[in-house]
Amino acid sequence: MARRCELTGKQTRTGNNVSHSNRRTKRKFKANIQKKRIFIPELNKWVTLKLSTRALRTLTKVGPYQYLRKLEKEKGIKIL
Fold first, then answer.
1. Domain assignment of residue 54, given as a range
2. How many CA atoms lie within 13 A of 44 on its CB side?
3. Global pTM?
4. 17, 24, 25, 58 from 21: Cα distances, Å
């Protein structure tokens, strides 16, 4: 099960820990992914998605149906 947002595509990124003496060691920046069940009133159905918290905030602000329709147009993602 990949740690990836199904709407925005956010996923784990790599980088460096930098110590006080400027030594670098590899590290991972994990995306904050939450599994949520969202009700879409226009379709009268529930959808379960793995979302980043940023996508969840946008979904709450814009509305689930409008946000999913916008993503279908922009990125060609088929969700509905």
1. 1-10+27-75
2. 0
3. 0.75
4. 11, 9, 12, 40
Output phi, psi for 7, to 5 deg. Answer: -100, -50
From first to last of the 80 residues of the chain, give the pLDDT tens digit. Answer: 588 998 889 999 999 999 999 999 999 999 999 999 999 888 899 989 999 999 999 999 999 888 888 888 887 767 66
CB-based contact 31:52 (threshold 8 Å):
yes
The CB-side HSE value for 64 (13 A sphere, CA atoms) comes to 18
Query: Rounded to whole angstroms, how far apart are CA atoms 17 and 29?
Result: 11
**CATH of residue 40:** 2.30.170.40
